[in-house]
Amino acid sequence: MRKMLHGLITVAILATASSAMAGDDSGEAGLDRLIKGRVAGKPVACINAGRIRGIQIIDRTAIIYRMSNGQIYVNRPALGAANLDSDAVINTSAVEGPLCSNEFVTFYDQGGMGMRGVAASVAMGPFVPYALAQR
Questions:
Q1: Where are any strands of DSSP class E within 1-135?
Q2: CA dihedral for 34, 69, 44, 119, sign (positive or negative)
Q3: Is 52:90 a contact under the CB 8 Å cutoff?
């Protein structure tokens, strides 16, 4: 029961964060605005799902993971990027430990106070860290 409650809370937080951060940014232009002033690091295969504090979906392009330490990771899905929709919510509550490349992530349509159903799934690509450029 506790695990299920934790999962529901996680989905609710991510739904709110995703909606609030989405704005009017979409596609490559939206991604460019998000990473402006940041420098790409070496891609990694996995990130710690427990440290994710926000998720933003860039339509048909990428998923942005905001971590508790301020770091952001950009993931361009290996499969299914065309299905990315900034109005959807990602369910990471089932992930225990790392979230890795080649794993599938499921999206849900937002609907009122709950989820209306599965919107799509994507296969994750490598996670590219972006740090603020040194001045």
A1: 38-40, 46-48, 52-58, 62-67, 72-75, 88-90, 98-100, 104-111, 114-123, 127-132
A2: negative
A3: no
Domain spans of the chain, in order of start: 2-132
Give the span between the Cα atoms of 34 and 58, in whole angstroms. Answer: 10
Q: Please, what is the Cα angle at 101 between 99 and 103, to 5 degrees?
A: 70
The conformation of residue 118, written as its DSSP 8-state character, comes to E
| Alpha carbons 57 and 30: distance in angstroms, whole number | 10
Q: pLDDT band at residue 25, thresholds of 50, 70 and 90?
A: low
Percent of the chain with pLDDT over 90: 45
Question: Angle at the Cα of 108 (from 113 to 103), degrees rounded to 5?
Answer: 140
| Residue of 58, 66, 72 whose CA lies nearest to 30 | 58
- Measured CA to CA, the distance from residue 72 to residue 40 in angstroms comes to 10
What's the whole-model pTM score? 0.74
- Cα distances from 108 to residues 28, 32, 33, 41, 69, in angstroms, run 23, 25, 25, 30, 27
